[in-house]
Amino acid sequence: MFEVRVNTDFAAAHFLRDYNGKCENLHGHNYKVYAHVRGNALNEGGMLLDFTELKRALKSVCARLDHTNLNDMEVFDQNPSAERIAKFIFDSILEMIPSLVKTDGDKAFLQAVDVFETDTNRARYSVD
After folding, report:
1. Residue 84 phi, psi dihedral angles, 5° rounding
2. Is residue 3 annotated as part of the catalytic site, yes or no?
3. Is 117 in the active site?
4. Active-site pick, 23, 24, 27, 83
5. Fewer CB in 10 Å around end: N or C, the chain?
6. Which pLDDT tens digit goes with each residue over 34-52?
7. Quick one: CA dihedral 23, 27, 32, 37, positive or negative?
8. Active-site residue 62, yes or no?
């Protein structure tokens, strides 16, 4: 099994509803985001997937989040947890590169998206 990973970052503010603690207050993070693609077969050029294509998609999605208040985005239903952010990015990458949808076969597929709020706190969304 081969795996490639690209990363980028963005800065955004948010607060958590239905939460009892300091994160219920508006605050910000410098998020780090990693996208993982896996597969059994390489293309004619000896690559699982061109890094440039995956990085372009990841950066495009994160640019939509950069320097925003994530609570203002309808997709997060007023509660932009790191888990929901990871799923949003995962789904958005698949919209941009539909060939990465996991199917039965050897082709490359999007395995996971990791969202780090801090160096030690990570949420991941992945396929089964």
Report:
1. -70, -35
2. no
3. yes
4. 23
5. C
6. 999 999 999 999 999 999 9
7. positive
8. no
